[in-house]
Amino acid sequence: MSQKVFSKDAEPTNVEQIDILSNIDESKSASIIGGFAGMTYTESIMSDTIKVKVSFIDSGDSLEDKSITEALPLVGQEQVRLKFSDNNENTLKVVLYVNKITPNSDRTQESMITLDLVSKEFIMNEKKRVNQRFDGKVSDHIKKLLTDSNYLGTDKTVDIEQTQNLYNFFGNNKKPLYTVTWLCNKSVSEENQTLGKNAGYFFYETSEGFFFKSVDGLLGQEPKLKLIYNETPDVNGNIPEGYDQKILNFKKDNDTHVQKKLQMGAFSTRTVLFDPFTCYYEVKAPNVSENGVEDSLTKGGKDLYLGKTFRNKEFDQEGTNEEFSRTTYFLLDKGTAPAGTTDQQLEKSGEENFEYGQIANQSVMRYNQMYSARASITIAGNFSLHAGDAIYIDSPGLKKEKTSDVDRKDGGLYIITDICHQITSEGTYTQCNLARDSFGRKPKTR
Question: What is the pTM of this model?
Fold first, then answer.
């Protein structure tokens, strides 16, 4: 950032626009800024669309000497245009739609109302179905499902990290957003992942558009901000050199639950494959500590949790395919949807459509590794941050006396998995849930 963000910037933000447009009369709209009571704006890499809650006071003379609820009337699906800026002139501007209307209190002269706002695609998703066959790269399927007018037909920016693997499938009348999410664990990045060693994508929306990004692509980003947490107030502009902002509240939540991680197969998952046509049977047990798997990962920290550095070798199981903590079973996907003419389909009928042994468990393991180290922070409102961004965090090491040494275990690069901007008349705060796959602080890159 070109400008540091101080704690005082948590003061009330500038709400520039909250306009509700009537469904009946396009020329009629109502601004609720005058009755604005508060808003929460949420993005998450585990959510396919943005979610917003906005509360306002609706009085009997809000619009045309009537309440907004009556004058528009407010019934659902109304377009809502929002624009608000933090105290460093970072602006969030989105167009959302009313999904739910909740009256919180009713009096004779006014009523407190909360609106649940969602993206247009969230509502359109309920009216569209995927009812055709798809052939080719997974990333091409994602683009078609999002931009084709037969499906979501979005005009927003769509940022798709290209996949290397092909996958043919039938829509089976599923919803578009469900189908996109379903394809996430069937994807291997062309640039950031290695077939047979790691896989898995996230699909999510921010105010900047839709994103389809691999786990390793997210962890390989340069940090957008560098934050520091210490007990010294940042008055008089005393944020340490090299940092952009102070953390007001910092909570570590490292998920070091060995049994849970083993049950989920985060580091060794056995795959049992069976071909019903040839009775071919194979057992594969990819292990993150073997065959260069860990070295192929793009890690947020220095060492993978329970990887080759941290694991206790007392629990290692000797022998081929003996080191595993979870087992999955798959019938080989052969002959189900080969592409081409009838003759070409016959020729390809023995080829695998989806390579379970190379992708399925690799994505399961990668998702579970992603959340090995977690933290949550609260900072002064900063609308430049989004879900999926990387940030760099430092905090003091744990010592009896005061120290300037940083925590080299839990500090370093994290990915914002969830972000919520809380805006009220009293102040503006940004809360973030953070995650990464490893421990240990890597050097700062800038």
Answer: 0.92
